[in-house]
Predict the 3D structure of the following.
Amino acid sequence: MRDPMNIVTHSYEFMHHRKISRVLVAAVIAFAIGWIGLCSDRINIDIEENADTTTTSNKISDKINIEKSTSETAKNNLLFQLPLCKPLNLTAVQEGIICLPKCDPSVADEGSLHPNEKINLTVQTNRDKYPGEYGKYRIHFPEEEIYLHVDGREYKKGGEAMHPRSVTERLFRRVIAKLFRAGVLDPTKNIINTGSWIGDNALPWAMMLEQLTTKPGKVIAVDPSPMYVNNMVNTAHLNLIGNVCTHVTVYSAKKGTVFTSTTEHMGVNLGLKRGEKQINMITLDSENITNLALLHIDVEGHESELLTGAMDLIKTSRPVIVTEGVSGLTDSNDKKVAEILRSLDYVHESSEIPEICGWNKSCRNHIWWPDQDMKDSAMKVIGNDLSRSEIVPWVSSELL
């Protein structure tokens, strides 16, 4: 049954960027959803404790190295059972939107999470290392001003990647949080987060909206990977979040079917006629979404197709739109995005966030405003953030 607020979302996660060389095949239209492209911002979850941080020259990958937890006292006595939370129906969530119920607090015992235990992690790209200390089971997201509980044992299943995301693309996080707190973006309206991965944006945003108003909007998180969507749902349950919806699907310019060659690291290829997994491809407009404040598009090269299938939504809701692209929007796909949004009277000038948003140092988040008046109001709040003279690194433990 459709959510009474009539909202749905979808997202993308394209092929893992370590497989870039495999997808540049002549005469095949390949694109990546979240894991490939110039602005890929995912973190490799295939890690080992005390792993060698050296990255080979023929691989472009991000690693997290678990150095050592500062406390081992709680290692063997953790219980992360949520018997009153209804498990995610992985079949239903691929057929339509699922809005998560808020779990009974009696089954999410904060005392079992050992909030003071710390873990040291190092994120490594092909060029840089970003060491940091994080709460192992209780992660502080400083810009959203929330604490997110995680099952710190689930390193191999994506849980490890959530820790450094609290300070990854931190300036972008600050900008979005400021806009909601100042009322430039309405916290009672909805957010669509495409390419939601493990919920590293969706869950902090949902918790922040719940703090800002008694009637928070929904955060609609979509990804083509059932594994990562299920990971996000488990974390949402653990944190008693009641305003998250999710869907396993792909948004594009038209309805259809796409296939992947793997079951989790999504290598979606429009030219592929068969694969291990079939994913429904639909237009965003077909979901009749309304009451939208923010459309966050993280689809690594598929932005123009998504926007083509979302014209009615954009015209009626006029949300603020955030896209990823290269600095200056000089890439051919960025130019298509600009052409589409400017045809809808969106404004972008001086709205590039001066921060690296992926392993490619030219990657930037770009804000598109529905009109000049909103942009002028926003600049009173975030003008100093967008006019920084120095580019903020991808991961920033300290940000003035």
Q: What stands out?
A: The chain has ten helices and 16 strands. The longest helix spans residues 372-386. Confidence is low (pLDDT under 50) at residues 1-38, 42-83, 155-159.
